[in-house]
Known about the structure:
By secondary structure, this protein is mainly alpha-helical. It has one domain. Helices cover 82% and strands 0% of the residues. It is elongated and about 50 Å long.
Amino acid sequence: MKKPAVVALLVLALIVPVALFWWLSMRYALGAAAAIAVAAGWALNIAWAFAAQAPAAAGPAQAQDNTRAIAARFGWVCPTVLVLLTWLVCRFVLPVAA
């Protein structure tokens, strides 16, 4: 994971769902904003898994397939938690500060 592009994808997978949900929640329904943000984060997680397990990487093919399968099945979990935390902060913390 020493390639800058792989690290950039991982960082984007953490930042994009939060920023996208925050921006979309001001304009659209919360459910639609959350679904779009989670889908974008999931897509970035899958892209990260493919980039991290590039064919040039050493290791058996089965390990590469397992990483991609895990990202495809559970890549939505982290963006969902990030969106939930963003919603909690926007709902309960920011109104108190305002």
